[in-house]
Amino acid sequence: MIMYCYLRKIRSSSVPRIRDNTSSLPGFPYTLELLEGSNTQCQEMMRLSRVAYIEICNHFKQLEEKMAIFLHVISHNDRVIKVKRRFQHATHIVHKYFSRGFEWNDGV
C-alpha cells in the first residue's frame, strides 16, 4: 500500500501531459469539420481523400441495408413481397439479396 501511494505521488508530480487532441469538437462534428475543411487535413488525419472516404461510407451504408433485409427475412420468416414493401425495393433486388446466401462481395 505504501509503495502504491509513493508511485502515485511520483506520477502526479511528473511532467504534465500535453493533450494531442486540440479540437474542441467531439465525434460527428469533428468528422464534419474534417470533411468540410481542406483536403490536405482530411488526407493527413484519415489517410484518405475526401472522395475515397465518402465512397467507403456509401459502400457500408448499402451493406448495412443488405444486412437488414437479410436478417429481416431470416428472423421474421417474411415473404419477399412484405420485405419489398417494408424496404421499398423491387422484388428482384430483395430476392437477390436473400437468395444468393448474402454474398458479401457481389458489387454492392
Automatic annotation (TrEMBL):
Domain DUF8040, chain residue ranges per copy: 22-102
One Pfam family of this chain: DUF8040
InterPro entries cross-referenced by the UniProt entry: DUF8040
Name by which UniProt lists this protein: DUF8040 domain-containing protein
